[in-house]
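A favour, since you know our structure tokens better than I do. What I am after is a single protein written out in full by you. Could you add the entry underneath, on a fresh line?


***
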Amino acid sequence: MATRSCCRHNLGEVPSPRGSIKVQDPWESHAGWWQEQFTEGVDPEYVEQILPLISSHLPGSGLLIDVGCGEGQVARVATTAGMDVVGIDPAHNQVSVATERAGGPSYAQGSATAMGLGSAVADMAIACLVFEHIPDVDAALAEVARILKPGGEFLFLLNHPLLQTPGSGWIDDQMIDPPELYWRVGPYLDEADVVEEVEKDVFIR
């Protein structure tokens, strides 16, 4: 499937990344941080674990929707594995870089709860480290179910809540005798609108 800003694949109309969607979101302003830190082979966890795991679960043909595609590294791997891929992301700064990096998929701007696709069009959907950042999980799952064909598959990967949730971290409890050091697990898939500082002056939701 050739890369283009607007595509038809029996999907209905897919909005162009240059369309009228306006997103005010930390992922828009900090897209460059994600691209520099976690893509193009920089992050060994993606190279050694995440992308090979995804590849092992792909059927090798059919239409796949990459929900929250970012700059497209998962979409490109899926295309290499033989899938036709449309990547959807709410951040223009992600979609534009994904389009520039090409590699076969098509990309469009949209959200996990409103992808702008037809119903029952996709053989598979994937969301890689996305759902922990979605404010309305139920609505996003309903949208994934809507776009999938009967019998379609949804593959999603999540950070382990033990280590990756806002509010998790070491607690040095000096209120007990003897003092104890333990790990506090924060709330996970909580639909509260939480913004976390993941690096100095880098905030994500």
